[in-house]
Amino acid sequence: MQIVVDLNRCQGYAQCVFLAPEVFELHGEEALMYEPTVPADQRERVRRAVAACPVQAILSGEQAVADVR
Amino acid sequence: MAQDTLFRRITDYAHRADPYPLYAELRRAKVARQEDGSYLVGAYHEITALLHDPRISSDTRERTDPEGPFPQDSSLPPSFIGLDDPEHDRLRRLAMRPFGPPHTPGRVDALHGDITAIARELVAGLRHKDRIDLVDDFAYPLPVTVICRLLGVPHEDVPRIHAWTTTVITSLDISPGEDPARRREAALAARAEMAHYLGELAGKRRGHPTGDMLSALVNDPGPEGALTPLELMISSVLLLIAGHETTVNLITNGMLTLLRHPEALALLRDRPELMPAAVEELLRYEPPVHMLPQRTPLVDIEIAGAVIPRGVPLILVLASGNRDPLRFEDPDRFDPERPDNRHLGFGSGIHSCFGAPLARIETQIALTELLHGLGPLRLAEDPPPYRSSPVLRGPRHLLIERVDGG
Amino acid sequence: MSGEPRGGRIVVVGASLAGLRAAETLREKGFAGELTIVGDEALPPYDRPPLSKQVLLGRVRARDVGLPRRRAVDARWRLGTPAAGLDTAGKRVLLAGGEKLPYDRLLIATGTRARPWPNPGEAALDGVLTLRTADDASRLAGLLDAGPRRVLVIGAGFTGSEIASACRERGLEVTVAERGPAPLVGALGGTLGALAAAQQRAHGVDLRCGVTVTSLRGDGGRFAGAELSDGSRVDAEVAVVALGAVRNTEWLAGSGLAAGPRGVACDAGCRAFDMYGIVTDDIFVAGDVARFPHPLFEYQMLSLEHWGNAVAQAEVAAHNMVSAGPDRRPHLAVPAFWSSQFGLNIKSVGVPTFSDQVVIVQGSPQERRLVAVYGYRGRVTAAVSVNRAKWLEHYQSLIESGAPFPPGPGAADGPGPPLSPVPSAVPDPAVLSHGPSVALTGHLPDRRLAVVHHQDG
C-alpha cells in the first residue's frame, strides 16, 4: 500500500496523525510528513486516516506500475 | 427578506425529529435574516466560506447586543471555543499538548484497547436484556467513562459530572422569545462548580502525575509556559463536557440511522472495514452538532449577494450544509461508501472539533461492537423522543428490541 | 483531431506525476486504445516532495516514495528509455535506442531536471550533487548519514532551504550561499524572504546572501570547500547545488514545436503551439514542462514547478485528448504550492511573483504565524500563509474573484486598520542563485522580464 497526500489541500487538521501516528507526523505545528510506503501492520490505521481526513487529501492504493520490472 | 418564522420553527421542539425540510427552506434563502436581527446560513459553500473567513469572530463579546440569542456567560472568561486568534490559538495549542500532535501524537491511538474493552463490557451487560435504552445503557456510559479516564477524573464522580453537564447543556436550549434567565443562572453555577472541581483535581496532580491529561497540563508546561490556573479550569470544563456530550449523540444517531437502513447495517456487518467511512457519513447525515450559534462578523460581510452586518449574531447551520445538493449528490441518502465526503460534522477551520479523533474512534468501536456483539435488533419506537436542544441534537432515549431468532 | 477520440494510439512522454495522472485520467474517461508511457528514469512513478524532507531526515528511504495509483492504466511502460526526438509530420516519437513509437495523440510531460553546476570538472567532484531524483536523494541522504563536518548549499530557493533545514535538524553544520538578498525571495518577495532569512539564522544556518560561489575546490577528487565572490572561503565536505530547474525540452529540438528553455508553450486546453504560434490538435502538454496562459494573471504564459499543477493540468490534458471540441475544458486551477522548513509550514495560492505590493493581514513575522496577501495593480493575486493554512481558502476566493487589493481590514488576528502594503520586492530572476519556481514569461511594466522568442526548431 502506497499513500500520497495532496499537501495543497491539507490544512493541518492532523486527524491522520492521531489515527495513524506511526505513518503520519506533524513536523512543527502544521507541516505534515508521512511514510509513502505503508508498513503492513499500519494499513488498517491508514484506512481510518484516509476516511477521516476532513479535506479528503490522502490517496492510498497499490503502487503505480507495481508490475513493471 | 426577513424570514421571521424560520428559526422559530427550526428550534421548535415539534421539528426536532426531522428538521431537514426546514433546512431545505433555509438553503433556498442562502442568508436568512431573522426578525431578532440574527442571521442564519445553511448552504454548504457559504458556511465553509464563513468558517474560513478571518473577519468572523467566535467571541460573542463582539456582538452589538450582548443580550441577543445565545449570550455569553459573563462570570468566567470564555473558553477557547469562544475566543479568536491569537488567544484561541495559544489556549488550544496548550490544551492539545497532552492530547495530540505534535507533542503527544499517540495518545488517542493508544486508547483503542481501553475503549474496546469498555464497549465490550457494556455490550455484554445488554445481552440479557430484551429491551435496551441505547442512550442510558450504552451511548452515555461509554464516552463519559473514556473522557474521565483520559482527563483523570475518578469514575465515582461520574454522577456529579453528569448532573453539571446536563445543567450546562440545557442552557443552550434557548428558543427565541423564551426567557432564559433562570436556566442561564443554573448553568453558570454548574459551570463554576465544575471548574472548581477540576481545578482542585488538577492541583492534587501537581507534582503527583498519574499519566492523564490533567496531570500533564499541570506538570508539563512546554516552551510557551503553562495555562494559568483559571485557564486550566475553563479549558478542562470544555474538554470534559465537549469530550463526551456530543459523542453520546453521535453513537445514538448512528445506531438509529443504521437501524433505519438495514441494507447499510448488513453491509457493515459483512465488511467491517467500511466502518470508518460509515462514521464519516453519519457525521454528514445526522451530525451531533447541528449549528454553530456563536459567530459574529467583525465587519460587514458580503456573501451570496447579501450583507451580514457587523456585530449581529450569525448562526451557521452545519447540519443543513451537510444536506446541500449543490455539494453532495443525493444528499438525503445515507451512503456509507460516499466518495469525497467533506462533511461539516466537526465544523471546519481553526475551531474545528478538538476531540474529533476521539469521537471518531469511540463511535467506530461502539457501532462495531453493537453490530457484532448483539443479534438482530429493531427500533422499538421511531422516531424516538429527542432531547430538547436544537443545537446538540440527539435522542433522549433510543429503545431497541431484539428480533426473535437472532 | 484525428480518428475516434476514445481509440487509436496515445503516447505519454514522461512517467512521473503528470504522466501517471494523465494516463489514469485517459482510461477513466474511456480511452480504449493503445497507451504507451515513456520515462527516462528506470523507477516507476514516484513522489518528489518527500525527497527533500522525510528522505533527507532519514525517516523514509528514497526507494520508498512510490506513488499510489488511482486505477490500473493498462499501458506499455517504457521506463529507463528517454525520448530523443519528435517527428510531428510522421507522428512518431523517437526513443534513445532508435526505436520509433507511432502515435495518434501525444502528451508531453517530460518535466524538469536539476540545473547542474556550470563547471563540469567541479561538478564531478565527489561530494558535489544536485537533488531532483530518488537516486540523488538516496546519495545525499547517505552523505548526510556519514556526518559531514559542514554542508554547503548553493541556492536558497525552496529546495535549497529544505535541504538546509534537514541538515540543521540532523545537527549538521550548514552554509547557505545565495546570490539574491534573501532565501525564497524569488518566489515570495522581500517580506517573507526576510522572515525566511531570520528563521534560517535562528536555526543556526550560516546564511550568506548577496554572494555567489565562484569555484568549488577539490582535494584528491573529493569536494573540500568553495570560494565565494566576497573573497571568503567555506570548508565543507558536501556541496548541494540547488540552482533551480532546467526544462526537459532538448529532445523537441527540430520538432517545430514552440519549445525552448522556458518550456513548451500550449493553450489553456493544454494543446501545444508550434513555432509559428499555431495551435496543434494532436500534441498536448502538462506539468512542469508546460507554459500556458492563465486568465487570472492577465493571460501571461506561466511555467509552474508545482505538484498540484502537474496533477490538475494532466487531468485537463487527458480529458481534452479524448474529448471533441465543445467538451474540452480549460486549465484554470489557481496555482498553489507548499514547503516545510525550519518548523514552518509555508503555503501559497495564486502567483506571489505576479505582484507589486504585499501586506500582512493576519498574524506577524514575530509570531512565526501569518498570512500575507499580494496584489498587482489593485487586485489580489496571491496569498501565502505561514503556519496558518486553515485561512488560505478565504484568500483563494479573493484571487479567483479578482478582489481589490489591499483587502479590507477586519481579521480578528489582523494588524488593525489601516493595512499598510509595502512593495512586494520580487527581484529580477537574473539576480538570484535559485530559479523561481514560477516563471512569468510575459511582459510586466515594472519588471525586467522579456517576451521569449522561440529560436528552437
TrEMBL record, chain A:
Name residues in a coiled coil: none
What job does this protein perform? Ferredoxins are iron-sulfur proteins that transfer electrons in a wide variety of metabolic reactions.
Q: Keywords in UniProt for this one?
A: 3Fe-4S, Electron transport, Iron, Iron-sulfur, Metal-binding, Transport
Source organism's superkingdom?
Answer: Bacteria
Its required cofactor(s), as named, are: [3Fe-4S] cluster
Q: Which organism is it from?
A: Streptomyces jumonjinensis
The answer on whether this UniProt entry bears the keyword ATP-binding reads no
Q: Which GO terms describe its molecular function?
A: 3 iron, 4 sulfur cluster binding; electron transfer activity; iron ion binding
Write down what this protein is called. Answer: Ferredoxin
Under Pfam families, the record lists: Fer4_15 (PF13459)
Automatic annotation (TrEMBL), chain B:
Residues annotated as region Disordered? 54-82
Q: Which Gene3D superfamilies match?
A: Cytochrome P450
GO terms, molecular function: heme binding; iron ion binding; monooxygenase activity; oxidoreductase activity, acting on paired donors, with incorporation or reduction of molecular oxygen
| The keyword Cell membrane is annotated on this UniProt entry | no
Q: What are the entry keywords?
A: Heme, Iron, Metal-binding, Monooxygenase, Oxidoreductase
What InterPro entries does its record include?
Cyt_P450, Cyt_P450_B, Cyt_P450_CS, Cyt_P450_sf
The UniProt entry, under PROSITE patterns, shows: CYTOCHROME_P450
- Biased segments, Basic and acidic residues type: 54-66
CDD domains the UniProt entry points to? CYP164-like
The record's family statement is:
Belongs to the cytochrome P450 family.
Q: What is this protein called?
A: Cytochrome P450
**Species, as recorded:** Streptomyces jumonjinensis
What lineage is this protein's organism placed in? Bacteria, Bacillati, Actinomycetota, Actinomycetes, Kitasatosporales
From TrEMBL, chain C:
Biased composition regions of type Pro residues, renumbered to the chain: 404-426
Question: What name appears for this protein in its UniProt entry?
Answer: FAD-dependent oxidoreductase
Region Disordered: start and end of each range?
Answer: 403-431
- Cross-referenced Pfam families: Pyr_redox_2, Reductase_C
Please provide, in alphabetical order, the Gene Ontology terms of the cellular component aspect for this entry: cytoplasm
* Gene Ontology molecular functions: oxidoreductase activity, acting on NAD(P)H
- Which species does the entry assign this protein to? Streptomyces jumonjinensis
User: Required co-factor?
Assistant: FAD
